Amino acid sequence: MKLDELLNRIPVSEIIGDKNQEISEMTFDSRQAVEQGLYVAIKGTVSDGHDFINSAIEKGAKVIVCENIPTDIKDEITYIKVKDAAKTLGHVASNFYGNPSSKLHLIGITGTNGKTSTTTLLFDIFKMLGFKCALISTVEYRIDEEVIPSTHTTPDVIRLNQILAKAVSKGCEYAFMEVSSHGIHQQRTEGLQFKIAGFTNITHDHLDYHKTFEEYLKTKKRFFDDLSSDAVAITNVDDKNGNIMLQNTKASKKTYALKTMSDFHGKITEVDFNGMLLNFNGKEFWTTLTGKFNAYNLLLAYAVAIECGFHEDDILPTISKLKRVKGRFETLKSDGGIFFVVDYAHTPDALENVLDSINEIRTKNERLITVFGCGGDRDKTKRPEMGKIATKKSTLAIITSDNPRSEDPAQIIKDIEAGVEPQFYSKYTSIPDRREAIKMAIKFAEPKDIIVVAGKGHETYQEINGVKHHFDDQETIIELARLMSK
């Protein structure tokens, strides 16, 4: 693509060199620079891309986009000065790939919990309605039938445009995307044109990155602030911060809730481990998904589908056919009659939602055993909170390792134990080895008891000291339950 086409509608402070360069590829990582390529120098949290301009040139880059033009200007290189390189990257990437987000219905879902479930449910709903769709989620990226392993909840903006461009070329009409707070803060969604933005909830998470809850909240809000007047913003008004998302948006405003007056109102009529009888805007239907948090996810998916122009008579029967999302309240029963729930819950709110949902369903004759941990190198402030919740709401809590990463698992467990209230000291034990913790839970359980294994959900690995070891909660449960029933 010609450089002048690439810079279309992008504010530029200064250009030094040939404006008619032909661009073969673009990158913001100097190690990936190629012959006749364009390199964007971004000031990151760890390093400054300006320090690697010469490295990119050595690899063949002919155009440099930067906030500060270097003193050693090289012949045959075009330097483009911009005010904000990270922001510019998004618009350049969109232009380079033909602005794919404008050629399909791009729906973004943000919030602490429920992003993966809601985007996956939407992908499944629209697929069942006969549309080709794309999915960009924590679990996987999908372009119609093609599955691509996921690397980040929100990929970098070049990768995002590559995926969306491929989706357009394959005939996709809709794309459903998780929008993380990291992605918003690092401007990975810059230049994308969202048709609908949905907000699930906001609770305690990522404070290792955002430092304060106020900063985390502001970052989420920015996603809605940046929407165009052609977009629709849908927020959960049962969440006390739900309305904050709509304060400065130019988009049309819609609300959903189970408890509060809203445009899309839901009610749980019946609930058990096999599913729920729900009522959305006066229409009743059955779903095999269960738990209040799933009622919220389905209600948001329903609201998005209605805002896309579909009739509830088409949407509700389709929702009734949905299956559970991998690693989200997945249930299985052992031959010995023990009931298991595997869930990705790794924040205080998510864990509380899962345990509350089970406590609403169970008759109290069954015991509830919770196996959980917290990830290393992540927000430490949520650890005691999760210890408090698990011990308060379970018959027995077994604290174990999640993904310790570079941290000492024993220290993570101590941080969790610090939140346990004195009256619940007798209700927990700590077993650092996750497999042994699950084994202990099965050993303790009797027929009809419920074991929740939380924190990893769909993940098939455990990261210890930078190495990923194979570990699948569901696989481990099936294996141990079989061995221990002999």
What does this 3D model show about the protein?
This protein is an alpha/beta fold and 486 residues long. The chain has three domains: 3-91, MurE/MurF, N-terminal domain (Udp-n-acetylmuramoylalanyl-d-glutamate--2,6- Diaminopimelate Ligase, Chain: A, domain 1), CATH 3.40.1390.10; 100-320, UDP-N-acetylmuramoyl-L-alanine:D-glutamate ligase (3-Layer(aba) Sandwich); 330-485, Mur ligase, C-terminal domain (Protein-Tyrosine Phosphatase, Chain A, Alpha-Beta Complex). 32% of the residues lie in helices and 22% in strands. It contains 15 helices and 24 strands. It has helices at residues 3-6, 53-58, 85-96, 115-128, 157-169, 181-185, 207-210, 213-225, 292-307, 312-320, 348-361, 382-393, 409-417, 434-444, 473-485, and strands at 14-16, 26-27, 38-40, 63-66, 78-81, 105-110, 133-136, 140-143, 146-149, 174-178, 196-199, 232-236, 252-257, 264-272, 275-280, 283-287, 330-333, 339-343, 368-372, 396-399, 428-430, 450-454, 461-464, 467-470. The strands form four sheets. An eleven-stranded mixed β-sheet has the order 9-8-7-10-6-11-12-13-14-15-16, with helices on both faces. The chain has a six-stranded mixed β-sheet with strand order 17-18-22-19-20-21, sandwiched between helices. Helix 9 runs antiparallel to helix 10 (312-320) and helix 12 packs across helix 13. The relative contact order is 0.08. The model has no long low-confidence stretch (mean pLDDT 94).
